[in-house]
Design a protein that fits this description.
The structure is a single chain. The chain has 133 residues and is of the alpha+beta class. It has a single domain, classed as Ribosomal Protein S5, domain 2. A 4-stranded mixed β-sheet has the order 1-2-4-3, with helices on both faces. The longest helix is centred in the middle third of the chain and has 19 residues.
């Protein structure tokens, strides 16, 4: 019986250390939407990685974990496959992220990715989603 592919984002694709988050925040570019903020930085010699931040202002632990799971899943399914090597991103949920539906959160994350010059997930050639990127 063939092994089923993992539906989990690999650990090496996640940012874990505080200095990494701080470097991306301080040296990277920031793009903002109503529910999500994305800081990104291209770091040569590093793998493509993402970190997810949900502050206490978004709600209790259950709500924060739900938002984080949704953001990780959107990243894993739509953004990780097209991430350039060395592209490191920090996704920060804003307070109203707890009130938006999964589809709206996905739309906002994809819009931020397009602003950052990410390849369009629907484009077979992997062309940037934003023409000026």
């Amino acid at each position: 019986m063939p092994a089923t592919p993992s539906l989990k984002l690999p650990r090496r694709a996640l940012l874990r250390r505080r200095p990494d988050f701080e470097t991306i925040r301080e040296s990277g570019t920031r793009v903002v939407r109503a529910s999500v903020v994305c800081n990104f930085l291209l770091r040569e010699g590093h793998p493509a990685q993402a970190g997810f931040v949900v502050g206490r202002g978004c709600g209790g632990a259950v709500v924060r974990n739900r938002i984080k799971r949704r953001m990780r899943e959107i990243y894993r399914q739509f953004l990780a496959p097209g991430a350039k090597a060395g592209l490191q991103t920090v996704w920060i949920a804003r307070q109203n992220a707890a009130r938006v539906a999964y589809a709206e959160l996905k739309r906002e994350m994809l819009a931020l990715a397009a602003k950052a010059g990410w390849p369009d997930p629907g484009s077979p050639q992997g062309e940037p989603a934003h023409p000026n990127a």
